[in-house]
Amino acid sequence: MNSDFVHLVCLARCWAGVTRDLSAAPLKAILSRIEGFRTPDGGYNQSTEASHGTAYAAFLRWAPIRTFGGCVPEPDRLLASVHSLRA
After folding, report:
1. What 3-state class would DSSP assign to 6?
2. Which of helix, strand or coil describes residue 83?
3. What is the DSSP letter of 5?
């Protein structure tokens, strides 16, 4: 699975749209790949090479959580990243 961040998030949401039996969906692999886009500041970025998260990527990261439940690992770090983006 070699997809970019946006497409991985969309793929996770699509699985929920096409089946009610999510046990067959490769959700663990998809969510693991999404975590690969975590930045050192605790946020998320569309680039795996970025040092800081973006508000857009943080927003997109919540999509699978809204769909499947659960939480973002280390949510305080994500919140700190988003707070650092305030203008």
Report:
1. helix
2. helix
3. H
Distance of CA 77 to the CA centre of its chain: 14
Q: What integer best gives the mean pLDDT of the chain?
A: 86
Q: What is the DSSP string of 18-82?
A: H-S-GGGS-HHHHHHHHHTTB-TTS-B-SSTT-SS--HHHHHHHHHHHHHH----SSHHHHHHHH
24: pLDDT strictly greater than 80: no
* pTM across the whole model: 0.82
CB 57 within 8 A of CB 51: no
- Percent share of the chain, pLDDT over 70: 87
| Cα angle 59, 62, 67; round to 5 | 135
Q: Please give the distance of CA 47 from its chain centroid, rounded to a whole number.
A: 12
Task: Work out the average pLDDT over 12-41.
Answer: 81
